[in-house]
Amino acid sequence: MTTTGAVTEFTISPENSSPGGITSGPDGALWFTESVSGKIVRMTTDGEMTEFALPNPDAQPWGIATGPDGALWFTEASCVRQQASRCIVGNRIGRITTSGSVTEFAIPSDGSETHSITTGPDGALWFTEYYGSRIGRLVLLDRPTVLAIARSASPRCINFTNHAWRGLMSPTR
């Protein structure tokens, strides 16, 4: 929107892609999620778009944020099950580089529907679990660390190291 109130709109294809979250990327472009089509889209301020398909089109990406590592991090809100199993699609946090390389990570709270995500002032990624009624914290570390799990704790904070889950810890309320 300009200071005079003029708005420029950009058409997204396909029409039923259902854009969700949007953020500015480390490359100067805008990045947004297409929930229905299962894609992450890079868009220049001139409207040029590049779509990146997720490994599973039913993942329903929703929130997106630039992470402290220069990649874009997003949530996958869906939960697809096979006969009483844990979610096999969705219920994940995803990472996409500016060149389009996607990595997905399951969160320990099954069926919680991850929704919004942001980088916090502590350099960690914070996300909401819509059905889990929780806030999750994902920490990016440059060296392997395993944190203890308290026996009575719900696994809400996630310690992330070298693109693999290394341990869990419980936050204080």
In words, what does this structure look like?
The chain is mainly beta. Helix content is 0%, strand content 46%. It has no helices and 13 strands. The radius of gyration is 17 Å and the shape is globular.
Question: How are the SSEs ordered, and which strands pair?
Answer:
Layout: E1 19-24, E2 30-34, E3 39-43, E4 49-53, E5 61-66, E6 72-80, E7 89-96, E8 102-106, E9 114-119, E10 125-129, E11 134-141, E12 157-161, E13 164-169
Brief descriptors of the model:
five-stranded mixed beta sheet; mainly beta; globular; 173 residues; single chain; disordered C terminus; four-stranded antiparallel beta sheet
Give a short synopsis of this structure.
The protein has 173 residues and is mainly beta.
Strand line-up in the sheet with most strands: 9-10-11-12-13
Mass-distribution shape: globular
- How much strand? over 45%
Radius of gyration (CA) equals: 17 Å
Can you summarize the main beta sheet?
A: 5 strands, mixed
Structural class: mainly beta
Q: Count of helical segments?
A: 0
Secondary-structure element string: EEEEEEEEEEEEE
How many β-strand stretches? 13
